[in-house]
Amino acid sequence: MRSCSHVLPLGVLTALLLSQVCSGIKWLALSHAPASLHMNQTQHCKLLPSMVSSQAQLCRTNIELMQTIIQAAREVKNTCKKTFADMRWNCSSIDIPADAPKYQPDLDRGTRETAFVYALSAATISHTIARACTSGDLRLCSCGPIPAEVPAPGYRWGGCGDNLHYGLIMGSKFSDAPMKMKRSGSHANKLMHLHNSEVGRQVLREALVMKCKCHGVSGSCSIRTCWRGLQDLREIAMDLKTKYLSATKVVYRPMGTRKQLVPKDIDIRPVRENELVYLQSSPDFCTKNEKQGSVGTQDSVNKINWTDKITAVLMCGARGYTPYTEKLVERCHCKYHWCCYVTCKKCERIVERYVCK
Q1: Which of 192, 226, 290, 333 is most deeply buried (CB count within 10 A of its CB)?
Q2: Is the pLDDT of residue 266 over 70?
Q3: CB–CB of 113/282 below 8 Å?
C-alpha cells in the first residue's frame, strides 16, 4: 500500500489523531485521540487530513458521529488484544504510534491477521454506532424499529432496541470508503478487505438477539417486554476469531470474464460469503522477524498449569520453553468478625511458570 508522505504535520493534536497510513483501517489511529477531545464543529474535520474525500464529507455532514468513531477505534484495539491474549500474535501491532509511517507488515501484507482486523473493525464501528443510537448519544438516530413479527403470548415488544440498520449504513460508509477509491492499493487487496469487512458485518447481524425484561406481581414473570439488542463486542470478536482460525487462503485470478478471489487449494468453488480470506501466509510469530512483522515470543513469561501446557507449546513453538517455579504468598482463610472487620492468614503456594527459550 502506498504511503501518505504528502501529508504534513499540523500540530500536536494532529499527530495524536493521524496515522500516516493509506489503508482501510487507518481510522484506527483515532484511538490515540485524547479523552478530552470533542468533535463538535465542522472545522474539526480538518484535523484529520488523511481521510479520503468521502470520509471527510461524512465528517462534515455528521460531525457528532466522529466522537462515536473515535470510541470505536479504541474498542477495536482493546477487544483485539483481549481476544488474542493467548496467541503468539497478540494484536500488538494494531497499537502503533500515531506518527508512525505505516502499519507493521503483519497488517500490511494481506495475511489472516489482516483479515481479522478488517472484519473486527467493520463490526465494531457499526456496533458502536448502533449502541450510540440507543443511548441517545447521536441526534440523527434513535431506537431500532419494532420487529414486524407478532410476539408469543406473554411477550410484548417495547424498550429501546439497538439501531443496527443505521449502524450498518453509516459504519460501512466510513470504513469501506478507502477501499473503494481507484488509487488505494492492488485490486486483490481491496477485494480481500471489502470481503472480510462484510464478513464482520454479517457476524454482527447474527448477533442481534431478543432481550427481555420481566414484569409481574411479587417478582413473577407474567409479562415480558422484549427488544432486539446486540450481543457484547467480545462475543462477536470470539466468533470472528473462530473464522480467523479456519480462514481460507485465496488467489486473484480470472474466473469467467473477470478476475476474482478464489480458494487457492480448492478453486473449484467460489469464496463463501461467511468465511474470512487472506492472500499471504503468516509468519509463525514465534521467532522475531521485523520484515514480516513478527515480534516473537522470546522471553514471554506466562502462567502455566497442568491443563494449559498446550498453550506453552503454541506460544514458544519449536524453541521449546524452560519451566520454573515461583512461590506466591496470598491471603487465605479469611473470617468476618462482628462488627465489623476481617482477619486473614497468609498462605504460600507454588506456581509453575515458563519462559520461551
Answers
A1: 192
A2: yes
A3: yes
Tell me which H or E stretch contains 289: none
Pair 252, 260: CB distance under 8 Å = yes
Domain for residue 344, yes or no? yes
Question: How many H helices and E strands in the chain?
Answer: 8, 9
Q: Give the whole-angstrom CA distance, residue 117 versus residue 193.
A: 10
pLDDT tens digits for range 300-314:
444 444 345 556 666
Contact 206, 228 (CB under 8 A): no
Give a yes or no: residue 290 inside a domain: no
Q: How far is Cα 199 from Cα 157, in angstroms, rounded to an integer?
A: 29
Q: Alpha-carbon distance 295 to 291, whole Å?
A: 10
- Residue position matching grid coordinates 415488544: 157
Q: Quick one: 70 and 180 in the same domain?
A: yes
Same domain, yes or no, for 242 and 313?
Answer: no
pTM comes to 0.77
| 125-146 pLDDT per residue, tens | 999 999 999 999 998 899 999 9
Rg (Cα) of the chain, in Å, rounded? 24
Residue among 252, 117, 125, 275 at smallest CA distance from 199:
275
Going by C-beta distance under 8 Å and a sequence separation of 6 or more, which residues neighbour residue 57? none
